Amino acid sequence: CADRKKKMVPVKLLVLGAQNTGKTALCVRFMTKRFIGEYDHKKEVTYRCSRMVDQETVDLEILDLPWKSSVACIESSIRWADAFLLLYSITQRSSFQEIPRLKTLIDKTKQIVPTVLVANKADLEIGRKVTNEEGQRLAKDLGCGFRELSVAEAALSVEAAVFQLIRLVLDQQRPLPDRRSYMLTVRHALTRKLTRSKTMQW
Ligand SMILES: Nc1nc2c(ncn2[C@@H]2O[C@H](COP(=O)(O)OP(=O)(O)OP(=O)(O)O)[C@@H](O)[C@H]2O)c(=O)[nH]1
Q: Which N-terminal stretch is annotated as signal sequence (predicted)?
């Protein structure tokens, strides 16, 4: 009963990245679990759904902007959003090089923004132009989370990337003492796990 009375937490995510990086494919994969090859690239689309994340019901809006959107449109969408998925394709170095510019646009508008950098098209290993290490390094430099995945091949990893971002937003919204106690809970859980795995080794 108490759970039913719990409020929905609104979370607004913006997906940004260069042309053909798989932004629409990722949104559709997250919403429907299906991979659909080709889309209409002209329109911006907002997807809406609710998901349970760590006992919170999250009322999610995901905005997918086409690559050709104007800077003004991107800036107003950045103001609208709570968090960002920045996409590049591992087969397209120029899409990787575009990421710092997008992050600068975000940082100009917002302070402390939950962001996850997503390296897409990991199934196309043969055409790889950006290494996993380069992706990790950039994410570290920009202060983002990092996931390399294939929207085409794995629905679960897409969900994991979006949930990682939602968790960053939820954590930011928690009052500071709660945030500390949440971190302590995580620390204790990790310590317990470590102790257990050490015990198993012996
Ligand atoms: N092999 C492979 N192809 C993918 C993957 N994700 C997307 N694609 C393909 O990449 C192309 C572009 O995908 P979209 O989702 O339309 O890309 P977008 O970033 O929304 O493109 P814009 O609207 O131009 O900004 C399509 O042909 C997709 O089928 C993936 O993980 N692997």
A: none
Question: What is residue 103's predicted lDDT score, i.e. its pLDDT?
Answer: 96
Sheet holding 9-17, edge to edge: 45-53, 56-64, 9-17, 83-89, 115-120, 145-148
Tokens of residue 27, six digits: 């949104």
Pocket probe for ligand 1: among 29, 151, 158, the residue whose CB has the most ligand atoms within 8 Å is: 151
pLDDT, residue 202, reads 37
- pLDDT tens digits, residue range 124-166? 999 999 999 999 999 999 999 999 999 999 999 999 999 999 9
Say if residues 16 and 74 touch (Cβ distance below 8 Å): yes
What is the number of the ligand 1 atom nearest to the C-alpha of 68? 25
User: How far, in Å, CA of 73 to CA of 89, rounded?
Assistant: 23
pTM, two decimals, is 0.86
Rounded CA gap, 144 and 165, in Å?
A: 10
> Does the Cβ of 38 fall within 6 Å of ligand 1?
yes
CATH superfamily assigned to domain 2-176 = P-loop containing nucleotide triphosphate hydrolases (3.40.50.300)
121 lines ligand 1 (CB under 6 A): yes
Atom of ligand 1 nearest to the CA of 64: 20
What number is the average pLDDT over the span 23-34?
Answer: 94
